[in-house]
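Supplementary notes for students who missed Thursday's class. We covered one full example, reproduced here. Read the sequence, then the structure, then the short commentary at the end.
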Amino acid sequence: SPPAWVTSLASGFKHFLAIICTLLVQRYGSRATAIAGGFVCAIAFLSSAYSPSLELLYVTYGVGLGLGTSLCFCSGLGIIPMYFEKHQALAYSLGQLGAPVGTLTLTPLLQYLFNKLGFSLTMVAIAGFHIIVVISGLTYRPVPEVPRRDGEAEVRAKKGFDVSVFKNRKFVMWLVCLATVFPALLIPYVHLVRLAEDKGISEFQSAFLLYFISVTSAICRPIVGHVSDIWPNRRLQFLQFAFFFFSTANFLAPLATSFAALAVYACAFGVFEAFLWSLIVINTVDIVGVHRLPSGIGWLFFLISFPEVSGPPFAGWIYDLSKSYSIAFFVSGGVVALAGLMMF
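Structure (token representation):
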């Protein structure tokens, strides 16, 4: 459906623009990039507050917010390896807690503001909240020199896009695997509530399912990061297990007939999300090396943004044809299982 494209574009452009934002991080540093990202996000929300049409929201919210969050996202990934080596996976896991924790803490507040102030003033308030992002960016203390970056990688950073990572066959296979799984990633967020409502579950209970995803993901991310630091050679196997686990959950979700059963599915998705986001960057480090991490991350998120954006609208298109979300979840389960098989 057209509204689904707005949120999909914002998420997709966050990753689509990573190839450019990682270059900005290398050239201007994480501090300047994070501060710029905070300002861009604020401008995106302000311009969306009084958007007269859905089409304009595609630009102001979809593209504008995507750019701002990409700047913040890439700057955060860029600063972590400068300060953490022994517990790097745990650091990445903690660094990506913003999404689940933000969902838990900000959603009730934003709903309250929306009921009291309406859409436009709520968007203005969110824009004001982004001063916190700017202040947080100021805490990114620059590091004069990173000894783990070799001279060759430094030259590539100055020249621009580094395509040498594609000579690494493991990295190419890693890209194909993630590009396969990402269309399924946003489907629960976009369609789980409607799936529950189609099964006769109340609107309040259906919306509450998203909290189960966020709580489980927030709890599991640090655990996954810590465990993968203890057994670094098993990181790929951990992620493979999560893929098969979530694939099974997707196949079973349409068969659920009660709130409790769908809550179990929501928790299963939270576990999968925790594994994916806790290990995606550190696995890339293991494959390409820390000195090529900016290029690897930039290309990885740029390429997977295309299947990521198409996932939820495709699921909506399936519903328009079949009048059932079950097929979308079945297809999602098959896609995730295929991605897991690619890791062998």
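Commentary. Residues 146-151 have pLDDT under 50 and may be disordered. The chain has 14 helices and no strands. If anything here is unclear, bring it to office hours.
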